[in-house]
Amino acid sequence: MKLDANLGSLTIEAQKIRDCVEHLLLNAIKFTPDQGMISLSARQKPDGIVEIKISDSGVGIEPSSLPHIFEPFFTSFDVSRHSSGQFEFGRRGLGLGLTLVKAFVEMHGGQVQATSEPGKGTTFTISLPATT
Question: Looking at the DSSP assignment, which residues form a beta bridge with residue 124?
Answer without folding.
Answer: 54, 114
